[in-house]
Specification:
By secondary structure, this protein is of the alpha/beta class. Helix content is 41%, strand content 13%. It folds into two domains: 2-233, Type I PLP-dependent aspartate aminotransferase-like (Major domain) (Aspartate Aminotransferase, domain 2), CATH 3.40.640; 235-353, Aspartate Aminotransferase, domain 1, CATH 3.90.1150. A seven-stranded mixed beta sheet has the order 1-7-6-5-4-2-3, with helices on both faces. It has a three-stranded antiparallel beta sheet with strand order 8-9-10. The structure holds pyridoxal-5'-phosphate (PLP).
Length: 356
């Protein structure tokens, strides 16, 4: 990324001079590399500022192309899907949110039942950001395809962490974010199947085939493509290694806190995520006690500190949602880190449970 902040600072849309052409070539290469990791044609990738913008472009852009109709999604989606849907409601669209089971998964038959003659668009995230559960995308896609309904998926948490190819899954619109796979913040993409129509959300220089006007951030795009390539390179090994460490975390935490409860189905799920509720402890005090030692939260970074709507949709109370830990493992996490995390969580819970 570094050269594109310094000597190679040209605007990739300025193709009348060398500096611009150099930046343009870097963007083209990155687009090809990213497309390759998704097994799609490069022209289908539209760079955005992240998954939030990609979701907005997909949902508002596609619905506004139709002008009216019914949209179906799920109550455990990220706010970057739920909030554009609230906007669509304001604009007169009908919106149905499916409620997943206690395991966080939706049953494709729920979708089938919710579809009406007006349904134009379905949006279901591939991997849940809080629970780590993987929705049955192929079955959902089969239902949508049979009825000619466009299927969007927020794959911010899936891409780079599970084998993920939009065409194999039958997805029409896919939102991605670089910073979920060790890429830079502020860059993402919407992958669009040929023939899917979208109204742009902004107008200007006509970049990205007129779908996303604005100067392209060359360095961020180059970083996104490189991060995707690196993620693809060791995906199976990483999944196996992180899955084993995540299981160690669950087993050892359960040993320290016998009434610990897991949130979300045991399988299918991301290998680097564990979400647990610790019954009977005060969530605010638990998180305060962990803060000096552990970077973890009870919900999404985009939840404004409110108790997780995802956990509450699964039937957890507000106080249970607050007394929950969303634990994520990374590339560098070791077995010693897991042990350290278990002892600091165990110690914090012991301290909070002591009679005062
Ligand atoms: C599932 C999901 N969708 C969307 C986003 C927002 O992505 P971005 O930060 O790239 O806008 C996130 C994370 O922040 C996420 O986890």
């Amino acid at each position: 990324m570094a050269p594109y902040w310094s000597e190679a600072w040209g605007n990739p849309s300025s193709r009348q001079h060398r500096l611009g052409l150099h930046a343009s070539a870097a963007v083209n290469l990155a687009r090809r590399q990213l497309a390759e990791s998704l097994d799609v044609a490069p022209e289908r990738v539209v760079f955005t500022s992240g998954a939030t913008e990609a979701n907005n472009l997909a949902l508002l852009g596609h619905a506004r192309h139709w002008g009216r109709g019914h949209v179906i999604s799920v109550s455990t989606e990220h706010h970057a899907v739920l909030d554009p849907l609230i906007q669509l409601k304001r604009e007169g669209f009908a919106v149905t949110l499916l409620r997943p089971g206690a395991d966080g998964l939706i049953d494709p038959s729920q979708l089938q039942e919710a579809i009406t003659a007006d349904t134009r668009l379905v949006s279901v995230m591939a991997a849940n950001n809080e629970l780590g559960v993987l929705q049955p995308m192929e079955d959902i896609a089969a239902i949508c395809r049979r009825q000619g309904i466009t299927l969007h998926s927020d794959a911010a948490q899936a891409f780079g962490h599970i084998p993920f190819q939009p065409d194999q899954l039958g997805l029409d619109l896919v939102s991605l974010s670089a910073h979920k796979l060790y890429g830079p913040k502020g860059i993402g993409a919407l992958v669009i199947r040929e023939g899917i129509e979208l109204e742009p959300l902004q107008w200007g220089g006509g970049q990205e085939a007129g779908l996303r006007a604005g100067t392209l951030p060359t360095a961020l795009i180059v970083g996104f493509a490189m991060a995707a390539q690196l993620a693809m390179a060791d995906l199976p090994e990483r999944q196996q290694q992180q899955g084993a460490l995540r299981d160690q975390l669950w087993t050892e935490l359960r040993r320290r806190i016998p009434d610990l409860q897991r949130n979300g189905a045991e399988q299918p799920r991301l290998s680097h995520n564990l979400n647990v509720t610790i019954p009977g402890v005060n969530g605010t005090r638990l998180h305060r006690a962990l803060r000096p030692h552990l970077a973890c939260s009870s919900g999404s970074a985009c939840s404004n500190g409110e108790p997780s709507h995802v956990l509450q949709a699964l039937g957890r109370s507000r106080s249970e949602a607050e007394a929950s830990l969303r634990l994520s493992l990374g590339r560098s996490t070791t077995s010693a880190d897991i042990q350290a995390a278990v002892s600091c969580i165990g110690d914090a819970v012991d301290q909070l449970n002591q009679p005062r």
